[in-house]
Amino acid sequence: MDKNQIKNISAQLKDIAKDLSFLSRPVYEKSKLINLFPQHLDFIQELQDSDNPLMTNSEDKMNKINQVRHEIIKSELDLSLKGIFEKRLEDYESMIIMMNHYQGPEFFNQCLKLYGSSHEFIKDQNFLNFLNDIDSLCKYENKDIQIIGKDSVDYLQKKINTDFPDAQIEVRPSHSLLSDSSAGRKVLKINIHKNYTQDQLNIFLAHEGWAHLGTSLNGAFQEMHPWLGTWAPSTTRLQEGLAIITELVSGYMTKERWQKIQLRHLATAMAEQGSSITEIYEFICDHQIAPLDAFKLSLRIFRGVPIQGGMAFTKELLYLHGLIDLLKTISIHELTLKSFWVGKMSFNEHLYLSKNGELNKDILLTYFPAQLETQEAILRQGHLIQIAKKNFNFGD
Questions:
Q1: 369 three-class SS
Q2: For residues 235 and 319, is the Cβ–Cβ distance under 8 A?
Q3: 52-64, pLDDT tens digit by residue?
Q4: Cα distances (angstroms) measured from residue 147 to each of 17, 86, 294
Q5: What residue ranges of the chain have pLDDT lower than 70?
Q6: 173 pairs with which residues across the strands?
Q7: 357: alpha, beta or left, given left = phi > 0 and alpha = psi -120 to 50?
Q8: Closest Cα to residue 177, out of 187, 167, 191?
C-alpha cells in the first residue's frame, strides 16, 4: 500500500474538514425565540442570528472535494480504502448541503442520511428494556461534594494530567452556549458559570477527555493511516457510543445522567414526529430539569431545522444508537474496547482496519485510560454486553 498516497489524501481530507464543524455554533432565528421564550431573553441575545452567514465559500469546498475524488480514483489504493475515503467525501458534501439549507427541509434530509432516525429503535420494546436494564448499573449522584465553576478547571486539569501525562492538554473555560463541556484535539473546555458535583466532573472527564480527546490524540500519531486524526460525520456514531460506554465501564455513570441521556433521545424522537420546540421545552421541564438547561437542550434538538416540529437534529440520537452498535460489534467480532481508541473512525473503518490486521500491527495507541483496564471495569463491560445480548439477540 502506497504510504505517500495515503498521507497526501489524508492531508487533503483534513483541509476539507476545516470550517465544517459549524454545527457547534448556536445559530437561530432570534426574533422567533424571543417571542416564544421571553423568560430566556438574556441567553437568546448571546446566540448567533441566522441572518449571518455560517461560513466559507461552499463552492470552493465542493471543487476541492471533486479534485480529491479524482485523485482517489486514479490512485493505486485498494478498493476498500478508496471506499472509506469516498464515504468521507460524501459526508463533507452533506455538511455543505446542510450549511446551504440551514433551517430547511433539506438540512433535515441530510441529517437523516448522516445520523439516522429515531424510527430505528423508539418503538422497539427491546430497546426500552435495554434502557431499564442499564439503569441498574448506574449509581445515584453524590450531591454532597460541590465544586464551584472556576475550580472545576483546576480539578479537570489535575485529572487529565494524571491520566494522559505527556499529552499537554489544556483545560479552559468554555464559551459554548449549549453544552457544559466539549473537547478539541488538545483542549478540554468546561462552563465555569455553574457549580458541579464531583460525579458530574468525572463524567465530563470520561466522556470528553478519555474518549473524545484520547481518540483525537491517538489519531494524530498514526503514520500509516493519518486520516484517523480527522473528524468526519460518519465517525460520530462510534464516537458518541464510545463516550457513553466509557462513562458506564468506568463506573462514573449516574442514574441522573442516564435519565438525561434517555430524555434527550425521547425528546429528539418527539420533535421528529411533530412536537414543536415549545412542546419539547415543556416536556423536558416536566422531568425536573432546570428551565435554562431545558431550553438549551431544546435548542440542541432543533439545531438547523424549523422549530415548528416534524424535524430534528438527529445527531442527538447517536449516544444511545452508537452505544448499542458498539456493544454489538464488540460481542460479535470479539473485539477489545481498546481497539476503538486508535483514532476518529466509523464502524466500517474499524472493521476495515481489523480485517487487515492493522489494529495489531501498524496502529499506535499512546493514550488509553488505565481505569478501563481494572478488574471492576472489565466486569462492568461484560455485564453491559450480556444486557445487550439479552435484549437484542445478537451473538451466542
A1: coil
A2: no
A3: 555 567 889 999 9
A4: 36, 46, 22
A5: 1, 22, 24, 51-56, 176-177, 360-364, 395-396
A6: 190
A7: left
A8: 191
Using the Cα atoms of residue 380, residue 381, residue 382 and residue 385 in order, give the sign of their dihedral: positive
Q: Are 145 and 197 in contact (CB under 8 A)?
A: yes
CB 173 within 8 A of CB 192: yes
CA distances from 143 to 107, 255, 339 (A): 40, 12, 35
Decide: residue 35, CB within 10 A, 0-12 exposed, 13-18 middle, 19+ buried.
exposed
The whole domain housing 140 covers 125-254+318-392
Are the CB atoms for 115 and 237 separated by under 8 Å?
yes
How would you classify the pairing of strands 27-28 and 48-49?
parallel
For residue 269, the model assigns a pLDDT of 95
Q: Is residue 329 part of a domain?
A: yes
3-class DSSP state of 187: strand
Amino acid at 97: I
* Rounded Cα–Cα distance for residues 334 and 243 (Å): 20
Cell of 89: 467525501
Q: CA 236 to CA 347: how far, in whole Å?
A: 10
CA–CA gap between residue 312 and residue 118 (Å, rounded): 10
Q: How far apart are CA 349 and CA 228, in angstroms?
A: 9
Nearest Cα residue to 381 out of 345, 311, 334, 348: 334
pLDDT of residue 395: 59
Alpha helices in the chain (DSSP H): 3-17, 30-36, 41-45, 58-74, 79-100, 105-115, 125-135, 149-163, 198-204, 214-220, 236-249, 255-272, 277-285, 291-301, 318-333, 347-355, 358-361, 375-392
Residue 18 resides in a domain:
no
In 3-state terms, what secondary structure has residue 185?
Answer: coil
Distance between CA atoms of 227 and 223, rounded to whole angstroms? 9
Q: How many domains does the chain have?
A: 1
Asked if residue 26 belongs to a domain, the reply is no
- pLDDT value, residue 56: 61
Tell me, what's the pLDDT at 121?
76
Residue 216 domain flag = yes
